[in-house]
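fyi for ur records
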Amino acid sequence: SRLALNSVTAGDYSRPLRISSFINELDSGFRLLNLKNDSLRKRYDGLKYDVKKIEEVVYDLSIRGLGKGDSHVEGKVPEK
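which gave:
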């Protein structure tokens, strides 16, 4: 999440969108696992907070019109 914030500060508005896409894929993979009370569960709990922070950054970018929007991430073509 710090990389997303620092990228916006540096003027790179497309990187948080790519980070968001990657983190969401990682989060969906963790949800498939049966996590009890082990170290992976702690990592997943931390990931949930990072997902929230990055979603806030992407939302702020979309509100300000600085990002390319949620439907267009580099390397992917929006469906019509």
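Confidence is low (pLDDT under 50) at residues 69-80. thats all i got for now
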